[in-house]
Amino acid sequence: MRLPRNTLVLALLMMAGCGGGGGDVGVPDVAGGVLQPGGPAEVDLMPARSDYRVGETVILDVVVRRAENVGTVVFHLRYDSGALEFIPPGVEGTWMNSDGSTTIFLATEAGPGELVVGLSRSGAGTGIDGEGRLVTFRFLAVGEGASDFAFSGASVKDPTARNLPAVFLTRQVQVAR
């Protein structure tokens, strides 16, 4: 059986991001908090604003700060599908390839309220440092209530697929009539 190309790419990204290449590092989900200088990379969810009305488009940027030697970032993004509906496609940010490296990017729906995302520097041999936008998502506000955006199965890896220390932050948006 021959699998579609994007299925194979997603499988490779998820293998790179989930296990192998060093021991697993705990990845806490934290809401807020201050990171100390020299601490772990911070992956954050940045909605354009926190309050929306049904029918409006919610823009969500995923950004990284204080990153060092990053080769791959993978995660599941969870949200309330009763309040928000994903509007494909996700748009790759410019940070992972800002030095001219080729990247592989995939963002796909895993089911209601869950996206699977993988970004990887392809053949670069070196990681990237600093901060920037990883991806931008759009959602349609479809129902009233609060929707938490949260990471699961998330990791930041170096170019040899070893886990790097990282903190993944959560955010919430409110949808009203």
Report on this model:
It is a single chain. The chain has 177 residues and is mainly beta. The protein has a single domain (5-176), classed as Immunoglobulin-like (Sandwich). It is built from one helix and 13 strands; from the N terminus they run αβββββββββββββ. Strands 3, 5, 7, 8, 10, 11 and 13 form a seven-stranded mixed sheet that branches. It has a six-stranded mixed sheet with strand order 1-12-2-4-9-6, with no helix packed on it. Mean pLDDT is 84; it is low at 1-36.
CATH fold type: Immunoglobulin-like
Structural class determined from secondary elements = mainly beta
CATH class category label: Mainly Beta
CATH architecture: Sandwich
Query: What is the H/E order?
Result: HEEEEEEEEEEEEE
Helix content: under 10%
Write the layout of secondary structure elements.
Layout (H helix, E strand, L loop, with lengths): L4 H13 L11 E2 L10 E7 L3 E3 L3 E14 L1 E7 L5 E9 L10 E9 L2 E8 L6 E14 L3 E13 L5 E2 L1 E4 L1 E6 L1
